[in-house]
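Listing 4. Sequential folding, example run.
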Amino acid sequence: MSDMVVRDYVEMEKCAQKIDEYSADMRRVCAGLKNAVSLSAPLMKDEDARRVLTGIETLATELIRDLPRAEYAAEALRRSAKPLREAVETIRQLRR
């Protein structure tokens, strides 16, 4: 992951929102994928097909398992944006 400095609280909050949307979409897609695999597994007759389904299910499980790290990053962005937003608002009020 690269280091970056963001000084725009609006962009930080937008990024956090995008991460939240991504996480929700990934959870939904992976849950659907796991459900489809479990429904189709009994229909698979050959070992190679069952092995592929197991691999797909494992991948979906791993993707879901790693989502809390992305969600933590979104929350950290929000926490970081809050004092920046407050400082900008205070400066704007002082300029009036």
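-- end of first protein; second protein begins --
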Amino acid sequence: MARYYTESASGRLREVIAQDDSGVLSGALYSRENGQTEIRTAFYYPKDDLWIKLPEWQKPRKVSTTSRDYLDFVRRCERGPYTATTPSEIMERPGSAEEVILAVFEAARPDVA
């Protein structure tokens, strides 16, 4: 089972961030020179323990990058001032993080950027 959320802009899927026992992966659609598109995945953060602070916590906590708290931190807090996408809620789906990323993109066609 993997947890994931999507990043969308103007109603179109831009990115899928998924988490499983190996860490957090990011997937996005890339255009190739021949006009075709492909889905590429890359590790966002491998399994590790990190200190994070969610807004509702009084103090930072040490959490695993495989925890729901870490994925929520990435979704809510690791956003730059120029971020133009909107995150979805965190969802769960059977499969590895990479399998979930591919399945979500396939299910969203043609509403991908």
